[in-house]
Specification:
Order of helices and strands: HHHHEEEHHH
Low-confidence stretches: none
CATH superfamily of the largest domain: Iron/manganese superoxide dismutase, C-terminal domain
CATH topology of the largest domain: minor pseudopilin epsh fold
Strand order of the largest sheet: 2-1-3
Mean pLDDT: 96
Number of strands: 3
Shape: globular
Number of domains: 2
Largest sheet: 3 strands, antiparallel
Bound molecules: manganese (II) ion
Radius of gyration: 18 Å
Length: 202
């Protein structure tokens, strides 16, 4: 069993000028591909452990599996939850109602999401997550897999590893995150929110 790099559903320059072609190409073809490779390697090493019965390095390979596996899943969602930018980009319907309920208003949600995402220490992600009860939560996830509540499901993610924005934005992380909000594909996020509600996972 092998994990594979998902193909983008849009052209490399489709998110210009907010997300530039060069960053997108390197990010998808090199960085995301690297996580897929790392995940497959960890899975192969764990298979070797099972074969030989030698589990002396299991802690190492489990950590590799968690790091690369979370990296693979988050990047797969990241590509999906972007589309060509819109200045008046905003959620609607049930998701907007949920955002009003759990964050007070759309503007308060955006302010919290941008602040949390900009505050990630080092490399990580801003994540909007949900749960079977329809609750909504914002987290600043460190690396790909740290600072997380088990049972929550990410429904929108913003990459703030420097590889995600440095070529165009350099140290201006807030400008990148603010522009990301114009790229967010709220129809996809809404669909994930709907499928979360009523599920049996929390
Ligand atoms: Mn990345």
């Amino acid at each position: 069993m092998e994990f594979t790099l998902p193909e983008l559903t849009y052209a490399y320059d489709a998110l210009e000028p907010l997300y530039d072609k060069e960053t997108l190409t390197i990010h998808h073809d090199k960085h995301h591909a690297g996580y897929v490779k790392g995940l497959n390697n960890a899975m192969a090493k764990l298979a070797e452990c099972r074969e030989s019965g030698d589990y002396s390095l299991i802690k190492h390979w489990e950590r590799e599996q968690a790091f690369h596996g979370a990296g693979h899943l988050l990047h797969s969602m990241f590509w999906e939850n972007m589309r060509p930018g819109k200045d008046d980009n905003k959620a609607d319907g049930e998701l907007l109602a949920g955002i009003d309920k759990w964050f007070g208003s759309w503007d308060k949600f955006v302010a919290q999401f941008v602040a949390a995402t900009c505050a990630v220490e080092g490399s990580g992600w801003g994540v909007l997550a949900s749960c079977a009860d329809g609750s909504l939560h914002v987290f600043a996830v460190e690396n790909h897999q740290k600072v997380w509540v088990q049972g929550l499901k990410p429904i929108m993610v913003c990459d703030v590893w420097e590889h995600a924005y440095y070529l165009k934005y350099q140290n201006r992380r807030k400008e990148w995150v603010t522009n990301f909000m114009k790229l967010a594909n709220w129809e996809k996020v809404s669909a994930r929110y709907e499928s979360c509600k009523g599920s049996k996972e929390c």
